[in-house]
Design brief:
- The protein has helices spanning 2-19, 47-55, 59-68, 94-107, 137-155, 171-187, 202-215, 224-249, 260-265, 268-278, 313-326, 344-353, 390-397, 399-406, 419-423, 430-450, 462-465, 469-479, 481-491, 495-514, 522-546; strands spanning 32-33, 43-45, 77-83, 87-92, 121-125, 159-166, 256-259, 282-285, 288-291, 302-305, 331-337, 361-366, 369-373, 376-377, 415-418.
- Among the domains are: 2-92, 2-Layer Sandwich (Gyrase A, domain 2), CATH 3.30.1360; 171-249, no CATH class; 427-546, Isoleucyl-tRNA Synthetase, Domain 1, CATH 1.10.730.10.
- The protein contains 21 helices and 15 strands.
- Helix 1 (2-19) packs across helix 3 (59-68) and helix 5 crosses helix 14.
- The strands form 4 sheets. A 5-stranded parallel beta sheet has the order 7-6-5-11-12, sandwiched between helices. A 4-stranded antiparallel beta sheet has the order 1-2-4-3.
- With 554 residues, it is α/β, with parallel strands linked by helices.
- The chain binds one RNA strand of 77 nucleotides through helix 2, helix 6, strand 9, strand 10 and helix 16.
RNA sequence: GCGCCUGUAGCUCAGAUGGAUAGAGCAACGGACUUCUAAUCCGUAGGUCGGGGGUUCGAAUCCCUCCAGGCGUGCCA
């Protein structure tokens, strides 16, 4: 609709150029938007005001000229007015709106999809939790955001790959091995000192318990280093498997699981270091190897290889991101916890040093989640092993509620996750509020089938029935959906869809209370059902992008 | 100290990438079920968009500055 109006406007301006009523100039991007006020019409444009400053004339008289040159061959506009400082407001014919329903019927599951991605290959890496403990709610938010962004991007024509980066190398894994080994020794009756920097959680004991029947007490005879390495691998595998199961329950699957260790095994870390070293980007100082990240705006250079010859995580991250781009992705998105934001400049520096543009690397920083129960914050401490896991939350409130609530905030804003609210089956719970729309419409269709109405495909008769103010209002609402999807794709912001759905749900429930759908008038009923069908489709499409189910009944 | 993020109704948050009279949910108050699912709806009340400057026809939105909060600032992960 907007594009049609833009075309009409562009032609009108050109036409005015030709008659000399406007002196020719470059036409800026024409903005057409939905006004806040209903009286301001269905769409409005500020083009006259923008042009006025260029042509140094009065916006209102300019608007007047443009309006006189408007040509609307398809007859979509009912009337055009000039208002305020120079807005041109368009009021569309009811049938223009109702025709949109036909469009939705044709597009169905693809209504809202677009091709702004044009097949561009894009990778999104998320969760990527170290396999040293179960996923907690914070990871859940990252998973919900990452998965939904991936859905949205592929819906908008991008070729998306979802990847999980497994930090299965380095000190944390060593610590994991040590923790498990200590618990294992403890289990076999040895008195051990369990240090504070080891993983305190009960799950460490559970893993040790699994090793015992397999290995007996034989690990005690091996040297500690071997035993710890064994425990580390064993534990990481179990934990990783658990995370995969949790993610499956959460409805998140990955296209690829990428191991950090593999970067060392394949020599890619060394290769990356050598390559940058040859180019002088990595240099030696005080016995360590440094990456010249300040050249790309970082505060200070960062160490890649320490004095003791051990590599830092930055080293493997350089190799990892190099590897990503080598796989042909045009854009790479990382989803991180907001506490890692200090890491962006150095990764960006590494990527730029490889000859990629800064905008080919995007980071979504997800703020933390506060769990609330009874209005009180649930204490969480990873260190002490006291945390509520993602699985706990899913089991308690369900995956739909969890996913939806994780997406009810901009990722940049901390999220209060109210467990009591999430479990509640009432209008206070936004998940049910939206899902209820779908269930209600499904119920109508069951009712309609009972009285013999089966076929609800588009019919031109709808043009005569769906023209009440209530109908037009809700059609205007669903008309905005494709733009919302596009915006959330370009901004990587799934919450826009969440909000859209909540608003659409409100509009539907209001409609439902005001306008009866199933009546004795079979023809009218069928026409109204055509609209209901479209609304249900939009709800379904939106929920799908969020990874939330659309139940037939509740 | 420096950097990033945040500051909008009593509370939790949206705000179309500069538009017209700033919105929603919760909480408060008053209403609506012999009705396609009341898991719903309608109404009332609530604001110095943290403060102050600037940019322009026009600012919650962009720039500067100050204040408050969060996070970061390792040869940690």
């Amino acid at each position: 609709m907007k594009t049609e109006l833009k075309t009409i406007l562009t032609e009108a301006i050109h036409s005015a150029f030709q008659t000399g009523e406007l002196s020719a100039c470059d036409i800026p991007d024409i903005e057409v938007e939905v006004p806040r006020q209903f009286e301001h019409g269905d769409f409005s444009t500020n083009i006259a005001m923008v042009l006025a400053s260029r042509l140094r004339t009065k916006p209102r008289s300019l608007a007047d000229i443009i309006v006189r040159h408007l040509n609307d061959p398809a007859g979509i506009i009912e009337k055009t007015t000039i208002a305020g400082p120079g807005f041109i407001n368009f009021h569309l014919h009811a049938h223009t709106w109702i025709r949109l329903i036909q469009h939705i019927h044709e597009k169905a599951g693809a209504y809202g999809a677009c091709n702004i991605g044009n097949g561009k290959r894009i990778q999104i890496e998320f969760v990527s939790s170290n396999p040293t403990g179960p996923l907690h709610v914070g990871h859940g938010r990252g998973a919900a955001v990452g998965d939904s962004v991936a859905n949205i991007l592929s819906y908008c024509g991008y070729d998306v790959q979802k990847e999980y980066y497994i930090n299965d190398s380095g000190r944390q894994i060593q610590t994991l091995g040590r923790s498990v080994f200590l618990r294992y020794q403890e289990l076999l009756g040895e008195t051990v000192f369990f240090p504070e920097d080891c993983y305190q959680g009960e799950y460490i004991r559970d893993i040790a318990l699994k090793i015992q029947p397999e290995k007996g007490d034989s690990l005690l005879d091996e040297n500690d280093e071997h035993a710890i390495t064994f425990c580390a691998r064993y534990a990481a595998a179990i934990i990783l498997e658990g995370m995969k199961q949790d993610l499956i329950q959460f409805g998140v699957t990955f296209d690829n699981w990428f191991s950090e260790q593999s970067l060392y095994d394949s020599g890619e870390v060394d290769t990356a270091i050598d390559r940058f070293r040859q180019r002088g980007i990595i240099y030696e100082k005080e016995g360590a190897l440094w990456f010249n990240t300040t050249a790309h705006g970082d505060e200070k250079d960062r160490v890649v290889v320490r004095q003791n010859r051990q590599t830092t995580y930055f080293a493997s991250d350089i190799a990892y991101h190099y590897n990503k781009f080598n796989r042909g992705f045009e854009t790479v998105i990382d989803v991180w916890g907001a506490d890692h934001h200090g890491y962006i400049p150095r990764i960006a520096a590494a990527i730029e040093s490889d000859g990629h543009r800064r905008d080919q690397f995007q980071v979504i920083l997800v703020q933390l989640v506060n769990l609330l129960r009874g209005g009180v914050q649930v204490a969480m401490s990873t260190r002490a092993g006291e945390f509520v896991t993602l699985k706990d939350v899913m089991d308690e409130v369900g995956t739909d509620a969890a996913r939806f609530i994780f997406l009810t905030r901009h990722y940049d804003s901390p999220l209060d996750f109210d467990l009591d609210l999430a479990r509640k089956k009432s209008n206070e719970n936004p998940v049910y509020y939206v899902q209820y729309v779908h269930a209600r419409i499904c119920s109508m269709f069951r009712k309609a089938a009972d009285i013999g109405i089966q076929d609800v495909s588009w019919d031109d008769g709808a043009l005569k029935v769906l023209n009440t103010p209530e109908d037009i209002q809700i059609i205007r609402h669903i008309a905005r959906y494709p733009e919302i999807v596009q915006m959330s794709a370009t901004h990587l912001e799934p919450h826009r869809i969440t909000y859209f759905l909540m608003e659409l749900a409100a509009a539907f429930h209001a409609y439902y209370n005001k306008q009866r759908v199933i009546t004795e008038d079979v023809v009218e009923t069928r026409m109204r059902l055509i609209l209901m069908w479209a609304i249900r489709q939009v709800i379904r499409n939106g929920l799908a992008l969020l990874g939330v189910s659309a139940p037939e009944s509740m």
